[in-house]
Amino acid sequence: MYFIQPTRDISYLEQVIDALPEVQMIFLEDRELYDPTIITIADVHDYLKYKWSLPTIVLALENEGNELAQAWEQGALAGWIWNKLPANPVNALKKIDAQYKRNQDSRDLPSAADLQKRLLPNPIDLTNYKVETLFQPSAYLSGDWYDYWKISDKEVMFYLADVSGHGVTSSLLTSWMAAFHGRSKTPRELIKKLNGMLVQENIEKHITMIAGILNLETHTIKWSSAGHYPPPIIFEPNEAPKILSTSSFPLGLTEELEVQEQECILTKNARFIICSDGALELYDGGLSEQFAQLVNHLQNQSFQAPEHVADDIAILSLRRII
Length: 322
Known about the structure:
Elements: E1 2-4, H1 13-19, E2 24-26, E3 40-43, H2 44-50, E4 56-60, H3 65-74, E5 78-81, H4 89-118, E6 129-136, E7 144-150, E8 155-163, H5 167-180, H6 187-201, E9 207-215, E10 220-226, E11 233-235, E12 242-243, E13 262-265, E14 271-275, H7 287-299, E15 313-320
Parallel strand pairs: 1-2, 1-3, 3-4, 4-5
Antiparallel strand pairs: 6-15, 7-8, 8-9, 9-10, 10-13, 11-12, 11-14, 14-15
Helix pairs in contact: 2-3
């Protein structure tokens, strides 16, 4: 940390410096040369006069309460009295520094959330098909993710994944998946590779996932699930919803992951929809009741997530137009 040499005479200066032996003394005119993320200690008069943006703890004399109040309004992190430092000023500095860093991390979250959303796939033009999506984090960053990309002129690969937990670690895994998928050409291969890497790196997270390939000519979807709930749903005009199911462990639990491959065909105007489990949290009742309400809303194409949700939500729909 830095200590800016006061421009006025302070009789307690040496006493304060002795109490903070690891603090580096710098001159006022050199303050722009130093790391702007490191906390600075300075006299309150200098802070108010020069209005710098460095994170600062100000020191004032006992009769300078008004100056301290002005410094707090100007953005000072804390205010101390020159001749009445905290009982353990080194520990006090460490606590202020830790809190400042936590606050900085929080300020970075909106930018991180914007960056995460930019990693989502761009809209894609597909012959006879339309891709529809919903992405609603419960906080800034999401542990739910979807992606899709062409692997040939007639095939599109896609997946929807749900990382256990919330926050930065879960969102980092979604970014990792986004960077990794291009080397896989089948749903089973993608799931097996992701599982192998999670187990090998011993990451204390697991991921549920549905991955599939849509053939734009035959209208066939080949898909696999890794412990994901809710299951895929097919909606066809004038037909009851088709609930598709398969079983497997989530990714990251065991090296011996058995992955089943399923197949279905989409008729004209049919929709193949996969959701993260956060979509169930919007409804009352047990799991079966929640799922029934979700199916009803999706069938009527009326699903809308509120602005604030308790869990991350991701939905991916493949709609056959012709």
